[in-house]
Amino acid sequence: MRFRSAFLAASLASAFAAPAAHAAQDYQKFDAEIDRLMVAGKIPGVAVAVIDGGKVRHVVARGVRNEKGDPLTTDTIMYAASLTKLTFAYYVLMLVDDGKIDLDKSIAEYLPKPLPAYPKYADLGVDERWKTITLRRLLTHSSGLADQRFYDPENKFRFNLEPGARYAYSNEGVNLAQFVIEESLGLKVGDEMNRRIFQPLGMTRSSMIWRDDFKANLADGMHEDGKWEEHDDRSSVKAAGSLDTTISDMAKLAAALVSGWGLSAKTRAELDKASFPIVSESQFPPFLIKDSPANAKIGLAAGIGVVVYDGPQGHAFFKGGHNDITDNHLGCVEKGKRCVVLLSNSGVGQRLYPTLAKMVLGDLGTPWAWEYSRQLPIAP
Asked: At residue 201, does pLDDT exceed 80?
């Protein structure tokens, strides 16, 4: 079985290596392998999109979307989790192109009042370090701000590290970027992302806030212990993670991202430029100060809303999105404008992702262990 699996993976990787439209039978083999891996990994549902040459080549959904056993389809609403951050970052870069914001200016230059004057951020008090915060620091997780205030013993918003000291994942930081944009420009981020990204790209089943029409075809999630949990209806826009979407819609977004749609070449380059080095051994827990010298060998760094690195096929970027019942990954390599999007309604979809990504893109050298903080199981 292991020999067969390795041979099939190698064959599929070879078949998918060139940026061209692929034969239907190649995708049939790939889809069959998804089914096999889902059984081996005990994953209820997986949706995959393949982008090649900047075009969507294949979109598939396998498995079930809920405890009743309703099928997961390419139009099933799934929780994007932190893929929301990448989508929001794309919108922020559009504002950069508009000349409305500068990634490197202090947020003090945009806010009408000092940040601690807003009740939501009053915990900062007289801590003047907030003035060192820029949108680049917020979107590269280098602001030093706490990940989520509810992790704090006193449930307070505060700095955990000196701003600009090191990469440390911060949901609070990304939500602050949304707050700065809305307060300074008088915009509603959810409405604007719909107008500027979702509608033009035909992402008709994507929204930063819950829509009642999602109910008819909605994915619940499964915990690692096999227990199901209902999809959470998110009632407010959160740049860090409120996006509901489908694999069909995320395929369109990935194709746009890797092709530079909607952005000037200069601003698109900011997306996957190495803006801030990542020295931490793992992404989580975010404030575990343990470094890995191996990161420098691949140029691991934060881009705007993504993580970038240099692998066997050249410059690449990725973004994950996880919680206890969701596991998502979007990875692209610049050469050939090739991407894979992987969505799962399981907290451990990661068990399949290295194998599936390698099948369609070949070996990109993706630092999977950094993303997931541990060595991933390999399906038999």
From this structure: yes
